[in-house]
Specification:
Blueprint lengths: L9 E3 L2 E4 L2 E2 H8 L3 E5 H11 L9 E3 L6 H10 L2 E4 L2 H9 L7 E3 L6 H10 L3 E4 L2 H10 L4 E7 L21 E2 L4 H13 L3 E5 L10 H21 L5 E3 L17 H18 L6 E3 L4 H4 L3 E13 L3 E6 L8 H5 L6 E2 L9 E6 L8 E8 L8 E5 L19 E6 L2 E6 L4 H5 L11
Parallel strand pairs: 4-20, 5-6, 6-7, 7-8, 8-9, 9-10, 9-11, 11-12, 12-13, 15-17
Antiparallel strand pairs: 1-2, 2-3, 4-14, 14-15, 14-19, 16-19, 17-18, 20-21
Helix pairs in contact: 6-7, 8-9
């Protein structure tokens, strides 16, 4: 189980602790479901990505998990931040995160979002469509621009998280000269403020050769861009998408090795083509936040269907972690107060929502006497859980607590029923 637990996790006398704090004590203090965020793991993985490049070349993908406290940690570490909506930008600014270290993504940025980027001094905008170029023309360019290229590389991952294939909704395809025409339009708009190109080939990627192919195709594209437009990229952003272990049969790639591999590929492919080697930018999100989080649930019901399946139902589910429902994500699980007990029963962890697909994970091993009241811990849930959480069935979103050195700090408060009702209006439009 250590393969998927945070760096500071320990199991002593059958009890799980994270950051020096007993998981059951956290559940008693803050309630469940509860996302426990290990600061040591988060910061160690962030630093590991910056081991082969400058910290300011690493842009944490805020979509994986972002709140004010996380933005403050990133600022202290000197990393950049990748945002893809006005809400994520507002969160960063609320943390006083330096706007010059922000990259603004998104396949459909509104005029309001682009104006906010200009007004606040966002450092880079990733241009994603011809329509966006025209919006920037009317608003004015206040940031450096990266043109997003779709390199035609299909990473070996779930189709819902592939982004580099030709049919992707993101970026400009290399086919039919479209990417070159987009670069031409961007240069006409912003000239030297076009600093380079961007590509992202997918998520939860373990095989790095897919990046090698993407770099080769981008370098070939930039040969044509130099010949036809006189353009040389100062920056090459290869996005993120590095996988993490969610189960014991997976191995999390070493961040420093990943960045070195990417840097070596860029230097090799560009040098072979006689191009100036651009500055490498990367955007890890899940690879930093994912291993840092553990979700604690309380078991409410155990339903044994002889010869079929045992359901262990917890007090959360797809409203705090929709990843299994979306694309079949798998996790490990353990009982926080009986982690050393023999895990002989194969069970499905189900949520409390009115959907048959409301499953946290299937076919995990737990003690055969798992019972209502037990605390269940699901590791590797620091990314794309709270970030994708909803209020389905009017269930309040969980709290997030950060642990370090035996201390716990609530960095996102638990929603209440009053929070759910705050924006409701009566049938006549009047407030409650």
């Amino acid at each position: 189980m250590n393969e998927v637990l945070p760096d500071t996790a320990q199991i002593r006398s059958g009890r799980l602790s994270i950051g020096g704090v007993d998981a059951a004590d956290l559940a008693d203090r803050y309630g469940t479901p509860l996302i426990v965020f290990d600061r040591v793991t988060f910061e160690a993985r962030a630093r590991a990505f910056a081991a082969e490049v400058d910290a300011e070349q690493v842009f944490y993908a805020g979509k994986s998990f972002l709140c004010v406290a996380v933005a403050e940690l990133l600022d202290d570490l000197g990393l950049g931040l990748d945002v893809c909506t006005g809400g994520e930008l507002a969160t960063a600014l609320a943390a006083s995160f330096p706007a010059g270290r922000i990259i603004f993504h998104g396949n459909n940025k509104s005029e309001e979002e682009l104006r906010a980027a200009k007004d606040t001094g966002v450092g880079r905008i990733v241009v994603d469509s011809f329509d966006e170029i025209e919006r920037l023309r009317s608003i004015g360019v206040g940031s450096d621009l990266l043109v997003r290229i779709t390199p035609g590389v299909e990473a070996h991952t779930h189709e819902y998280v592939q982004t580099g294939q030709e049919e992707s909704k993101f970026g400009f395809t290399l086919a039919d000269g479209i990417a070159l025409e987009a670069l031409r339009h961007a240069l006409d708009l912003a000239g030297d403020r076009v600093s380079g190109v961007h590509a992202h080939i997918g998520s939860q990627i373990f095989e790095l050769t897919a990046f090698d192919l993407a770099v080769a195709r981008l370098a070939t594209f930039l040969v044509a861009a130099h010949a036809e437009l006189g353009f040389e990229a100062r920056e090459l952003n290869l996005g993120g998408g590095i996988g993490i272990a969610h189960t014991r049969d997976e191995v999390t790639p070493d961040p420093a090795r990943v960045v070195k591999s990417l840097r070596d590929a860029v230097e090799r492919e560009f040098a072979e083509r006689g191009l100036r080697v651009p500055r490498l930018l990367v955007e890890p999100g899940r690879a930093i936040a994912g291993p840092s989080g553990v979700t604690i649930y309380r078991v409410g019901t155990v339903k044994r269907i002889p010869g079929v399946r045992t359901y262990v139902a917890v007090d959360g589910g797809m409203s705090d972690n929709p990843r299994h429902a979306l694309y079949g994500a798998r996790y490990e699980a353990l009982l926080a107060e009986r982690a050393g007990a023999p895990a002989t029963a194969r069970v499905t962890i189900a949520g409390k929502h009115c959907e048959s697909g409301d499953v946290v994970t299937r076919d995990v091993r737990l003690p055969s006497d798992v019972a209502p009241g037990d605390l269940l811990a699901v590791p590797a849930t620091g990314a794309y859980t709270y970030a994708m959480a909803s209020n389905y069935n009017r269930v309040p979103r969980p709290a997030v607590v950060m642990v370090e050195g035996g201390d716990a700090i609530e960095i996102v408060a638990r929603e209440s029923h009053l929070d759910l009702l705050r924006l409701d209006r009566r049938a006549d439009g009047s407030p409650l």
